[in-house]
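Backbones bend. Our protein:
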Amino acid sequence: MAELKPYAAYKDSAVPWLGQVPISWTVQRLNASVADVVAGTWGTEPNGKDDAICVRVADFDRSCLRVRIDRPTIRAIAPADLRRKRLKRGDLLLEKSGGGDIQPVGVVMLYDHEVVAVCSNFVARMSVATSFEPEFLAYLHAALYSVGLNVRSIKQTTGIQNLDCRAYLSESVAFPPLEEQAAIARYLDHADRKVRHAVRARQQLIKLLTEQKRAIIQRAVTRGLDPSVRLKPSGVPRLGDVPKHWEARRLKTVSHMKSGESITGLAIDQVGEYPVYGGNGLRGYTSAYTHDGEYALIGRQGALCGNVHQAHGRFWASEHAVVASLRDGYGLSWFCSLLDVMNLNQYSMAAAQPGLAVEQIMNLWIPVPPADEQGQISDYLDGATANVDKAIDAARREIELLREYRIRLIADVVTGKLDVRDVPVPEDETDLPSEELETIDDVDVVDQSDDAAEDDSESSAEESA
């Protein structure tokens, strides 16, 4: 990527957070770029006549600053509302309700579709004024969000943050001339594709390394370490053959399993002494929920359903985790490695929010080596997977650095710290297939349970709004 340089001349913006801006840029309030602001609507249940897509915050793709409509929410929208609130290509959508401590309300997305749609009443449609480039404005709002400019316009209410849209749009920023806005948008689109391509390559590397690690573990916990050992039929079709001196046993003969407790907000203290597993990351307060010792922790719900981790010492376990304690004579490290390759997430109860079927898992058959061999397997896996783990960690760190670079680059370019007007941008970037660049956020499988819960709470709030 070409080396970027600052502009030749600057002036004082008189805006403390902004500082110096290029001399040709104009300092104005954000609302100068907005033709109008129209609140969204939630409509009513679909009726087959007045149906349209209703864009929700859950449809915001924060990695590429666009709205996604691949999983549309359909609502019946009154004809008068549709005429007044229908989205047009190039509109900006401002999140005005929602958010939280980690992701404050106030993110802005570009709507670049032609389909009939409105936005929900958690969102406001902002039509872009003439002499402004929508793509540039999307990047500008992203930079403002990254520095937290939206935070001082947030009005906190119980459970939901509300953005004072008037206050936010009264913030002062610097706008380049229209032609320069288009050049900035072109360059950032190009740079963004480069970054996402690099992230995607590392995501694929992580996937391959994870599969390699899984194959190493699978072989060790189902066949042992000595390839010359004779095998015997286990008597269980799913297990197949096992080493001759191993046993096939039901999981319940090796371990106890118990779902975590229902920990409410009253039992949570952010500065508590012990961590909560399977919950919201806060720390426990009430001693009734304490576990002390060595356990296997299994994700019970969401996309992390079936994920296995070791827990040592004292901790709390919420209802989103299953606590597995071993009977005497069995090693925790071996046990967790075995569980990790069993694809426990396939044993879920059908429900709106699937959960691990603990009773079914307890009756599964597993291959069990003698106690001393369990330890040997654990020691072997510690060494055999160490380099793979290091490579995975390195790739993850590179992804984080690329994300940080992207955020910094966008901020520096849209605030005039770097000049991209004369940077050549290829017209045809065929080396970067768009289907491989959908997001830069999916490093691993992430827990969608929080997203689902957010979707449900958003729907409920919209229905009552």
